[in-house]
Design brief:
Layout lengths: L1 H6 L9 H10 L15 H13 L16 H6 L9 H5 L19
Protein name: non-specific serine/threonine protein kinase
GO molecular function, one term: protein serine/threonine kinase activity
Keywords: ATP-binding, Kinase, Nucleotide-binding, Serine/threonine-protein kinase, Transferase
């Protein structure tokens, strides 16, 4: 989902569900901007690292998979989440950086 939100497309495509599954099993994960990425953007580098580890083909290498008790903890400790205060997430106390205005007049009844 992170990949799709960032790139507006799925990491593995195919004309049918079966082809998508085949591509997941056989194709390497690539990122659309790899040819333009010089590695200097730390956030992008950490994002790609996290997504790559979450989508590792071998389940034993997948971030968060191998240790049932510490899987989520390992994901949360990834450098991508370095500045996240998890108690604020749990308590829903983060303030949204942007709150859109809602025009209730345009809502259907």
């Amino acid at each position: 989902l992170m990949y799709e939100l960032y790139y507006c497309k799925t990491p593995f495509i195919g004309a049918t569900r079966e082809k998508i599954i085949d591509n997941i099993k056989q194709k390497e994960l690539t990122f659309p901007d790899d040819d333009k990425d010089d590695g200097s953007n730390r956030n992008l580098r950490q994002f790609k690292s996290l997504v790559s580890k979450l989508l590792a083909r071998d389940p034993s290498e997948r971030l968060g998979h191998s240790d049932k008790n510490n899987g989520a903890r390992k994901v949360k400790k990834h450098p991508f989440f370095k500045n996240v205060i998890w108690t604020k997430v749990l308590n829903k106390s983060y303030e949204a950086p942007f709150v859109p205005e809602i025009d209730l007049g345009k809502m259907k009844k």
